[in-house]
């Protein structure tokens, strides 16, 4: 017997027919002898409807009241699922966020602090399925809070950790985590296994399969996750701390893309100690994260250009900050370009296997893709390029690393 | 400075534009220096939508889960109104039913036990408008409860009593309480004042202006109510314990109708002591309320017929109960007729003024209306007739008691 959390997203809960499908899956786990907690999202579209009502009510809506309004969507689906399970002969009851989930931090974007597990343990020991609205909790002063958009994943993982669950299954409208965005590479392959760290790096690829915060939380709690289709019986992707011997692969996990960076270049900086700090210090103070940096000597030798990337949303703020420090930094020109993209190969052990980086740069060079900057971490090598070259880069890398699925593979998977 | 509760129904809360209108009325009361609590219904149609979802989810939906689902509608409007008030520059916050309203009794039909007034007092003393979802509370074991359909009126009165409010204003889509159903008598007149007891008797007339339970509660708490239009600036109707000298009228308050009774006649009962008890005892045991009773000697003299009314919804059950006791009771035939109606004149002091009853019977006789049964109480005289005679009876009585408004009166009222 295992204790498991099953999480279902808005598409899976959109209407009574789909809620019945969810109930059938819950019933199967229960009949396999598991203790089951279910975390549910609001019906697809409902949270958007409620957010829109808040916007219409007041341009500057109070986050405390916003939380009261938008938290109602999951309350409805939790009650409906509990009823549906009862109708199928299971013991089930709903719990409200305020009964279970103590949270801290700003309204509209709270963090789970603790789970009141006594009520849940009692229900589970009695064979009752616990149905819990995702995305919400209660503040120290007893007010309804929400965890931010997509927060139901975080609820599921936080509740799983809080009740000592053996695993957390995230049911969604895709059937797992893919090697890359299938819209760019139609032959992208579903991964059977992926590590938490790889998952965090691949989270930006295509459809947001899992909220990043929930993956980080599961990693810290060492809680195994599975990403599964809510609609088809497929094995999905297991997200684990380390790849076991049976999960080995001799290539990367996948290829991540990121269009949300912009490039800033400052020309002809004095080549003196501390000049990089003079640029980056004020940006850090302003809360602007810098990702890639490259410093290149200019023709004269005593001066150099510096190029770095910031989130596109922060580009104008970053430029304003630098402008005010121009005298202090001492550059000639500030150039910028929002039309850049970052392509990364992601996989455990990348740094310890230089052949992988070599394969990457060879493939990109053969495709005549100019690299603006390069960076590397324990599990990732990234290359910055102009945005119009991104899709080509992803495709050649996908092929070079042997990730393309065989034409018959997806069909075989669907039949399993 | 007064402490007042303002209650707004679903029609008044249907959409952001109408919520803004509600907020304007709240603002006016606040700016007059009053401490204000607002009790809100769900948007018109929303509770029906949620109830329908529950029905689809499970034919036998668990009342505890039903409550979780349907209580969400008022949660949304409470948050939206609090935001809107803030947007107009007022201090406001929403409270949830589970934070304030302790309830007892069956889920789906709970009663208010107590109001946690500390939180409310604190808010009101600080100049904050308290916005509270109607229709709901929390059970002793911490689960969401609802008070039954129309329960927002009861919430408003219960909360007003619990916080020692000076009065409770019920804003609705009619502009007050009328002398009778305006669909039957277009010249029905709005009453400026009515007593609680009269209001209880007139509750059945036409649109249910106020939930009966809420009127009974206000009467016990001696809490003045006002029924007002949410859309027009009209004086409405004040519901009070006793008519003051300035509220005197020399006629009845109004005319009530009731189509929801059915008539049962048992023929040729032995004219012996205890025969009425033999009929009514088993019905009382079965929980069936009997209203009017008339016993009439039959031609032979040693036997009599007995006729009484039961709620139409209980007619078949009542007949089944009597059928099983036929030998015991000893009647010849059981006849029944669901097509009867009760017309009542209502007003304080009716019993002490026999001229009123005389006026009633004279008017009905002149209109050739046959009375099946008659009953009287302190504030009411009722006549049972066939349903097809009901509307005529109401019209002649309305004229006979001088209740018809002058042709120009409604226009004058609207301009006030």
From TrEMBL, chains A, B:
Gene3D superfamilies: Acetylglutamate kinase-like (3.40.1160.10), VC0802-like (3.30.2130.10)
EC numbers: 2.7.2.4
Residues annotated for substrate binding in this entry: 47, 74
Pathway stated in the Swiss-Prot or TrEMBL entry: Amino-acid biosynthesis; L-threonine biosynthesis; L-threonine from L-aspartate: step 1/5; Amino-acid biosynthesis; L-lysine biosynthesis via DAP pathway; (S)-tetrahydrodipicolinate from L-aspartate: step 1/4; Amino-acid biosynthesis; L-methionine biosynthesis via de novo pathway; L-homoserine from L-aspartate: step 1/3
Domain of life of the native organism: Bacteria
GO molecular function, one term: aspartate kinase activity
One cellular-component annotation, GO: cytosol
PROSITE patterns per the UniProt record, alphabetical: ACT, ASPARTOKINASE
Domain ACT, first and last residues per copy: 264-348
UniProt enzyme class: transferase
SUPFAM superfamilies from the UniProt entry: ACT-like, Carbamate kinase-like
Protein name in UniProt: Aspartokinase
């Amino acid at each position: 017997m295992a204790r498991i959390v099953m999480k279902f997203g808005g598409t899976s809960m959109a209407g009574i027919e789909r809620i019945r499908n969810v109930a059938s899956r819950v019933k199967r786990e229960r009949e396999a002898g598991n203790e089951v907690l279910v975390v549910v999202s609001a019906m697809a579209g409902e949270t958007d409807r409620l957010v829109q009502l808040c916007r219409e009510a007041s341009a500057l809506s109070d986050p405390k009241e916003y939380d009261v309004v938008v938290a109602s969507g999951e309350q409805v689906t939790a009650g409906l699922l509990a009823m549906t399970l009862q109708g199928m002969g299971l013991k089930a009851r709903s719990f409200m966020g305020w009964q279970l989930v103590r949270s801290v931090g700003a309204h509209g974007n709270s963090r789970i602090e603790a789970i009141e597990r006594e009520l849940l343990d009692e229900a589970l020991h009695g064979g009752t399925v616990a149905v819990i609205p995702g995305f919400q909790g209660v503040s120290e002063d007893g007010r309804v809070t929400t965890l931010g958009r997509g927060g139901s994943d975080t609820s599921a993982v936080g509740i799983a950790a809080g009740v000592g669950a053996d695993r957390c299954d995230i049911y969604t409208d895709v059937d797992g985590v893919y090697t890359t965005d299938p819209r760019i590479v139609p032959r992208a392959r579903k991964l059977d296994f992926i590590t938490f760290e790889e998952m965090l790096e691949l989270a930006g690829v295509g459809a947001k399969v899992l909220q990043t915060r929930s993956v980080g939380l599961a990693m810290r709690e060492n809680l195994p996750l599975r990403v599964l289709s809510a609609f088809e019986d497929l094995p999905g992707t297991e997200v684990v701390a380390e790849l076991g011997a049976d999960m080995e692969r001799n290539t990367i996990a996948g290829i991540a893309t990121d269009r949300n960076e912009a490039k800033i270049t400052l020309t002809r900086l004095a080549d003196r100690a501390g000049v990089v700090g003079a640029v980056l210090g004020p940006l850090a103070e302003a809360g602007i994260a810098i990702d890639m940096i490259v410093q290149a000597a200019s023709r004269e030798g005593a001066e150099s250009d510096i190029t770095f990337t910031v989130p596109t949303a922060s580009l104008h703020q970053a430029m304003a900050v630098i402008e005010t420090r121009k005298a202090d930094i001492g550059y000639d020109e500030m150039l910028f370009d929002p039309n850049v993209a970052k392509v990364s190969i992601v996989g455990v052990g990348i740094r310890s296997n230089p052949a992988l980086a070599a394969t990457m740069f060879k493939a990109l060079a053969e495709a005549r893709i100019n690299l603006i900057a390069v960076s590397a971490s324990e599990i990732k090598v990234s290359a910055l390029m102009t945005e119009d070259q991104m899709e080509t880069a992803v495709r050649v890398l996908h092929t070079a690393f042997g990730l393309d699925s065989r034409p018959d593979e997806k069909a075989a998977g669907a039949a399993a």
